[in-house]
Amino acid sequence: MEENIRVVVAGGGTAGWLTAYSLVTRLGNLLEITLVESDQIGTVGVGEATVPTMRKFHHIFKVDEREFMRATQATFKLGIFFDHWGAPGDSYIHTFGVAGQSTWMAGFHQYWMEARANGFGGSLGDYCLELKAANAGKFAVKAGETPLAYAYHLDATAYAGFLRRKSESLGVRRVEGKISEITVDPVTGDIRSLELEHDRRVAGDFFIDCTGFGGLLIGGALGVEYEDWSHWLAADRALAVQTTSIEPPPPYTRAIAHASGWQWRIPLQSRTGNGLVYSSRFCSDDDARATLLGNITGKTITEPRPLRFKTGFRKNAWRKNCVAIGLSSGFLEPLESTSIHLITTSLIRLMKLFPFSGAMAPLADHFNRETRIEWEAVRDFIILHYKQTQREDSEFWNYYRTMDIPDSLAHRMEIFGENGHVWPDLVSLFRTNSWVQVMIGQGLFPKHRHGAGRILPPEALKQELGKLSAFVNQNLARLPDHNDFIKQYCPAQN
Ligand SMILES: Cc1cc2nc3c(=O)[nH]c(=O)nc-3n(C[C@H](O)[C@H](O)[C@H](O)COP(=O)(O)OP(=O)(O)OC[C@H]3O[C@@H](n4cnc5c(N)ncnc54)[C@H](O)[C@@H]3O)c2cc1C
pLDDT value at position 3? Predict the structure, then answer.
C-alpha cells in the first residue's frame, strides 16, 4: 500500500485554514496534513467581503451556509456601492446580478442603449433584480423561483476559527510554533522540513506556503521573485477599524473614494468593518487616520490598525515541492474583494494538479500559467476603477487618470468606448455584466451601438424591455427586508 503524502501547511490565517480544510475534506484519506502557525505572529484578519464563487466553493467542500453564517456574523452581499469614483458626487452599484437578457450576438446593454437613444428604457439597473434589491435593502436567497446572485460579508477571524475546528475534527494536526528556518535539500532544491523555535522540526513531502506577506517558504527559502505592480496600483497602506453599527446591515459593501484613497464599509451582524486604502506617495499616515476617523459612522470598538503591502504577484506561485497560497502568492487591493476568491481558485487548481506521482515541474508550470492569467484579469479590472475617472481634485487621481495601463485593459476600454462590445475575462470571474456596470458606472459610455438593438422596431423593443422590468419588480416585491431575512435564516450565535 502506498504511504500517505505528508503535506505541511505553513501558516494559519484564512489561507492556511482554507487550505487545510479543503485538502482534508476531499483528499483526507490520501494525505497526512499538518498545519504550523504562530499565535505570536498572528494573522492579517481583515478579509471580510467576498464574491459569489465562495458559495460554489462551500458547496464543493461541504460547508453548510447557515452554520457558516451563524458562526461568522455573516451578512449577505449583493454587490458593491461605489461612491465618488467616476467624479465627486457620482455613485453606482456593481452588483453580482445580470441586467436584462443578452442574446448570442449582443449584450443586453446594447438593446438598452438603443432604447435610450429613442427616449425610453430608464436605467440599466431597472433590469437587474440584485441591484434593485440592494438599493431597497431587501434580500432572500430566492425571489419565488428566481435565485439571487450573492456573496457574503464575514468576520475573518471567526471564519479561520470555524475552518480550524472543522479541519481538526477531520484529522488535521495543528502545531503551534514559530518557524525559524527552512531546510532545503542541497541536491534537489526541494524543501525538506520547517525548523521551529525550541528545536522542533516538521518534515514533509509537499509544502504550502500560507505565511502571509512574508512568503517565508516561496520567497525566503526558494527565492521566487515578486513582480511589482505598484506602478498601476499605487496603494501600499491601509488602516482598519471596527465600529458599532448605526443601522441594520445593508446587503452591499460600500467603497467610498476620497481625495487620496478609498474607504471600505463592510456590515456584519454585530458590527461594521471599516478601513482606508491609500498610497504613502500621496497621503501621510496622519491624514489617512483623520480621513478614516472623520468618515466612519458608529463608535470605534478597536484601535485603528495599520497594514502595509506591496501590490504584485509571485512570479511562480509553485516552485519545487512548494505552492504559495494567499498573501504569500501576491496581493491585489480589496476593492473588488477578490483575495479569498483567489485562495479558493488556487486550491481547486492545486487539487486538480496535485503531484501524487511526485513529478512536479510540468504540473507546476501549468499551475503558474493559469494563475498568471487569472491574476492579470483581476488586476486589470481593479485598475479600470482608477483609470476611468474624471476626478481632477488631487495628485492621487491625476496620477491614476493619466497613467499608462496594461495593453490588455487599454484594448478593452477602447473597444467598449467605441461600440460597447464587451467579453468576459478568460477565467470568468468578471463576466460581461461586471465589465459593463463598472465601465458605464465610471463614466465610459460607448460612442456607437451594435445594430442588434435596431432589429426590432422601437415599439416592440419598448414592449420587451417593459416585460423585463416588470418581471424584476414582481420579484422585488417578493423579497423581505435583508435584516429580517438574516434574523430568521442565520442569526449569529452570540
Ligand atoms: C487591508 C486589507 C483588506 C482586505 N480585505 C479583503 C476583503 O475584503 N476580501 C478578501 O477576500 N480579502 C481581503 N484581504 C485579503 C485577506 O485578508 C487575505 O487574503 C486573507 O486574510 C489571507 O491571508 P493569509 O492567510 O494569506 O495571511 P495571514 O492572515 O497573514 O496569515 C499568515 C499566517 O502565517 C503565520 N506565520 C507567519 N510567519 C510565521 C512563522 N515565522 N512561523 C509560524 N507561522 C507564521 C501567521 O501566524 C498566520 O497564521 C484584505 C487584505 C488587506 C491587507
Answer: 84
Is 337's C-beta closer than 6 angstroms to any atom of ligand 1? yes
Q: What is the pLDDT of residues 280-339, one digit of tens each?
A: 999 999 999 999 999 999 999 999 999 999 999 999 999 999 999 999 999 999 999 999
Ligand 1, atom 13, residue with closest C-alpha: 47
Q: Name the residue range of residue 288's domain.
A: 237-308
**Through-space distance between the first and last CA atoms of the chain, rounded to whole angstroms:** 47
C-alpha dist (Å) from residue 464 to 227, 431, 457: 49, 23, 11
Task: Give the CA distances from residue 33 to residues 43, 120, 175, 364, in Å, rounded to whole numbers and listed in that order.
Answer: 20, 60, 11, 20
Answer yes or no: is 460 within a domain. no
**CATH number of the domain enclosing 342:** 3.50.50.60
Mean pLDDT of the chain: 96
DSSP per residue, 27-59: HTTTEEEEEEE-TTT-------B--THHHHHHH
Kindly provide the b/e burial profile for residues 187-207, where b requires at least 16 CB atoms within 10 angstroms of the residue's own CB: eeebbbbbbbeeeeebebbbb
Contact assessment for residue 278 and residue 256, using Cβ atoms and an 8 Å cutoff:
no
Same domain, 300 and 317: no
Catalytic residues: 77
- CA–centroid distance, residue 13 to ligand 1 (Å): 5
User: Which residue from 9, 34, 35, 37 has its CB within 8 A of the most atoms of ligand 1, so it is best to mutate?
Assistant: 37
Characterize the bridge pairing of strands 206-209 and 226-228.
unpaired
Backbone angles phi, psi at 450, to 5 degrees: -70, 155
State the Cα–Cα distance between residues 255 and 334, nearest whole angstrom. Answer: 10
- Among 9, 14, 159, the mutation site with the greatest number of ligand 1 atoms within 8 A of its Cβ is 14
> Residues 317, 283: one domain?
no
Q: Tell me, in angstroms, the distance from the centre of ligand 1 to residue 43's CA.
A: 5
| Same domain assignment for residues 210 and 326 | yes
Would the CB of 333 count as within 6 Å of ligand 1? Answer: no
Best probe residue, ligand 1, of 8, 35, 41 (max atoms within 8 Å of C-beta): 41
- The pLDDT assigned to 493 comes to 81
Residue given cell 456601492 in the structure block: 81
Q: Which among 308, 337, 371 is the end of a domain?
A: 308
- 274 CB within 6 A, ligand 1: no
Question: From ligand 1's centre to the CA of 368, what distance in Å?
Answer: 21
Among 325, 358, 391, where does a domain finish? 358
263 C-beta closer than 6 A to ligand 1:
no
Written as nine digits, the cell of 7 is 503535506
